[in-house]
Amino acid sequence: MLNRLAMFLLTAALAVAPSCKAISSLIHDGEVVAKFGDHKLYRSELEEVIPNGTSPEDSVNLANAYINSWAKDKAFVDIAQQQLTKEEKDVSKELEAYRQSLLRYRYEQRYINERLDTTVSSKQIEDYYGSHSESFKLERPIMKARFLNISKDSPNLAKIKKLMSSDDVADVIAADSVAFNSAFRYRDFSSAWIDAVKLAAEFGVDYVQMLSAREGQFIQMPDGEDKISVAYIVDSRKAGEIAPVEYCSDRIKDIIISGRKHELLAGLERDLMEDARLKEKFVIYSK
User: Which residues contact 207 (CB under 8 A, 6 or more apart)?
Assistant: First the structure.
């Protein structure tokens, strides 16, 4: 009943409001939007979950979802208060442990943000790759490719296929130009390695099915009754092979930066403990 009343008030207010943010006029006789037992939900709390510019319909949906979620939480709080023992309701230790953990985390983040060097050179990436290359074996094939989706009766099909398979930069540019005016889609993935899954998505099939249609450097598959999809494979690596360094560079950069974070925190921990011992703040008493 309470939910229905709340929704009626919400709907009525939003229907006549000149702004989608007019939640403040939900209730005219006070701050309360809903209540559950002794708990009250105030309109200021509800306003916080309704973003500016939200449509009336979405505002009602968001408000209704929040009110119902709030009521469920209060229902659990009430039953817990009734049925848990005094000891079970005492969460002071857990709260203190969480507070300390949160304070530590926030300080660590500040410490890292103030000191972390996020610059990773190409040489550092190559050195790491050279020392850990076995860690970069491919789980799936990767490739560099050019993709075309065009009418199977297009007079430019053969021309674009020839141009897109050329090693001449001028021909590749020409392929893009011709395809722009006659193809449904043309994608050039030849400048960077991509997962076979990404190319297969262009065909609308899984990558195993796509690769089964490969003949030489071309993959060609029908797309419905009237279209055809074609990919020219510029280069490729099989699953199980070690990935090229350029394909791993972002991952290696993240690994290096993560290592630096760990070193900063380990150093901070050592410094704090050493300082505490020197100042005799930290003492272990013999048993």
Answer: 140, 141, 195, 196, 197, 199, 200
Q: Is 57 exposed, middle or buried (0-12, 13-18, 19+ CB in 10 A)?
A: exposed
Give the separation between CA 224 and CA 229, rounded to whole angstroms.
10
Angle CA 65–70–72, to nearest 5 = 95
Q: Is 240 left (phi over 0), alpha (psi -120 to 50) or beta?
A: left
Q: Is the dihedral of CA 99, 104, 107, 112 positive or negative?
A: negative
pTM for this prediction: 0.73
**Burial of 199: CB neighbours in 10 Å, binned 0-12, 13-18, 19+:** buried
Domain boundaries, the chain: 2-83, 95-137+260-287, 138-237
Give 256-269 pLDDT, tens digit per residue: 999 999 999 999 99
Between CA 124 and CA 130, with CA 128 as vertex, the angle to 5 degrees is: 115
Q: Are 157 and 258 in contact (CB under 8 A)?
A: no
Strand 214-215 with 218-223, pairing: antiparallel
CATH node for 138-237: 3.10.50
